[in-house]
């Protein structure tokens, strides 16, 4: 089957590219209800993962700013060589970005709920 004859499968990452929204909308219209539920679940997971990453970047930036201000104050008050204190904020940023990255990866690799996999509607 050629590339043109095959129906377009929606990719969650296309939702974040504004140039592909129209193509994505056409692909979603051709999905079965089960496929649409799975796509919606993947989209929610992807958005949740990006939110965690964004929060991680913001927390790291604020920790870096506070750490650099603390390092500058400590450098001004301490006697002797304390240049190492300027490396501490960068180490903290590295740890924070690593932790939030692991958290985002764990969110992104989550397994779909059983009702989406089996194709049954959730009961209340």
Question: Would you write up a description of this structure?
Answer:
The structure is a single chain. By secondary structure, the chain is mainly α. The protein has helices at 21-29, 33-77, 88-108, 114-118. It has a domain at 47-118. The chain is built from 4 helices and no strands. Helix 2 packs antiparallel against helix 3. It is elongated and about 70 Å long. The protein starts with 20 loop residues before the first helix and ends in a 6-residue tail after the last helix.
Helix-strand blueprint:
Elements: H1 21-29, H2 33-77, H3 88-108, H4 114-118
Helix pairs in contact: 2-3
User: In angstroms, what separates the terminal alpha carbons?
Assistant: 43 Å
Number of β-strand runs:
0
Which class of secondary structure composition applies to the elements? mainly alpha
Share of helix, binned:
55-70%
Query: Mean pLDDT across all residues, rounded?
Result: 83
Largest sheet: none
Features:
65% helix, 4 helices, elongated, mainly alpha, 124 residues
What's the quick description here?
With 124 residues, the chain is mainly α. The chain is built from four helices and no strands. The chain has a domain at 47-118.
């Amino acid at each position: 089957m050629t590339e043109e004859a095959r129906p377009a499968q929606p990719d969650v990452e296309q939702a974040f590219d504004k140039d592909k929204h129209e193509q994505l909308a056409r692909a979603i219209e051709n999905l079965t209800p089960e496929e649409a539920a799975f796509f919606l679940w993947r989209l929610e997971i992807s958005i949740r993962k990006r939110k965690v990453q964004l929060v991680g970047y913001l927390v790291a930036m604020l920790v870096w700013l506070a750490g650099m201000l603390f390092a500058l104050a400590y450098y001004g008050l301490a006697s002797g060589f304390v240049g190492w204190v300027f490396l501490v904020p960068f180490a903290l940023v590295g740890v924070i970005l690593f932790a939030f990255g692991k958290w985002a990866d764990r969110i992104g690799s989550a397994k779909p709920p059983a009702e989406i996999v089996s194709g049954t509607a959730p009961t209340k």
